[in-house]
Design goal:
Blueprint: H1 23-45, H2 47-70, H3 81-91, H4 99-114, H5 127-138, H6 157-160, H7 167-173, H8 180-185, H9 197-209, H10 216-231, H11 236-241, H12 245-252, H13 263-283, H14 290-308
């Protein structure tokens, strides 16, 4: 043993251990987690939901492929991030939206928000939410037409398709709201992927068990929404089960690229998302504010990380008393 040549060890920057997962595996897990909500969207809204989900996903993947070829950069369609963007964008669209607008939003998400900033990991806001806001500003009337669940089974599907409002809009107008059970299982109008809270919670539980996300952001986001609604004298359950707060808190506010990486930053980020969401819901002219809240906090993420970063191990800590 004494004559054995010592083994040379290479030293590099952390992390030194690899869990075996890569971007493709993570994105596949996200797609699996989104599957229950996609299934319920198909059940409630029929072929239109399936068409929008497939169209947005295909348009995002194709657009990314073309972009990478044009920019002469390595292909990234195999990491499934474009597919995730497409599904999330479709989840943020009303069932009645013209498919052409869905394709336009998909191209905007990939080209303008993602690839023009360098591709995956370089975009500073969530591409799906940025595309939703783009469509809301460009086509506000088309993005605000809601259909009742199972409209495709009706003999008067052409008239029933736009004959309802979202629970938040109903509450704001004082015209009543669906029951808690209907809110929980999704029997009400809304965007494709936001109506069924049960399906979203199942997907979120899967992501937590797979350790794809951590609970700080969703819990702080949802907790802030509930506490703010309670302080404002409104029903916190209605705000939690209505609109896109569940979809946003679980699947979009937790986007790796656009949220803080440290625990303190995630807590601050989640609280900020909840506060901005409720500020828009309570005082804004729009009944919903999740998309704007997450995008605004995406922009603030670098500053949050700078304020909440911990000192590197071994660095000198300044003592103001000396």
């Amino acid at each position: 043993m004494e004559n054995q040549t010592p083994q040379k060890l290479s030293v590099s920057s952390s992390p030194h251990a690899h869990c075996g997962e890569n971007t493709a595996v993570i994105m596949q897990d996200v797609l699996i987690a989104l599957a229950p909500a996609a299934l319920m969207a198909a059940v409630y809204f029929g072929w239109r939901a399936v068409l929008l989900i497939l169209l947005c996903t295909g348009a995002c993947v194709l657009t990314e492929y073309v972009c990478r070829r044009v920019m002469k950069r390595p292909q990234t369609v195999g990491d499934f991030s474009a597919a995730v963007t497409g599904v999330l964008l479709a989840f943020n669209l009303p069932p009645t939206l013209n498919p052409i607008y869905a394709v336009l939003g998909s191209v905007f998400a990939i080209v303008v928000v993602k690839q023009m900033f360098g591709g995956i990991g370089m975009n500073f806001v969530n591409p799906a939410l940025a595309a939703r806001i783009f469509l809301l500003i460009s086509f506000p009337s088309h993005m605000s037409r809601w259909s009742i669940p199972f409209f495709y089974l009706s003999d008067n599907a052409d008239t029933d398709i736009v004959s309802t409002a979202t629970p938040l809009a109903q509450a704001a107008a004082g015209s009543g709201r669906p029951s808690y059970t209907d809110l929980f299982i999704g029997l009400h109008g809304g965007c494709l992927g936001e109506t069924c809270t049960l399906a979203l919670l199942l997907g979120g539980l899967y992501l937590l068990l797979r350790r794809i996300i951590t609970p700080e952001i969703p819990l702080c986001f949802l907790g802030t929404v509930a506490l703010t609604a309670l302080a404002a004298g409104q029903n916190p359950l209605v705000h939690l089960l209505s609109g896109g707060v569940m979809l946003g808190a679980i699947f979009m506010a937790t986007d790796y690229t656009t949220c803080p990486v440290n625990r303190a930053g995630k807590i601050f980020y989640g609280i900020g998302c909840g506060l901005i969401t409720m500020t828009i819901r309570l005082f804004g002219s729009l009944p919903e504010g999740v998309s704007y809240a997450i995008v605004l906090m995406n922009i603030l993420t670098p500053h949050i990380e700078a304020l909440t970063q911990s000192s590197p191990f071994g660095s000198e800590v300044r003592n103001s008393g000396k």
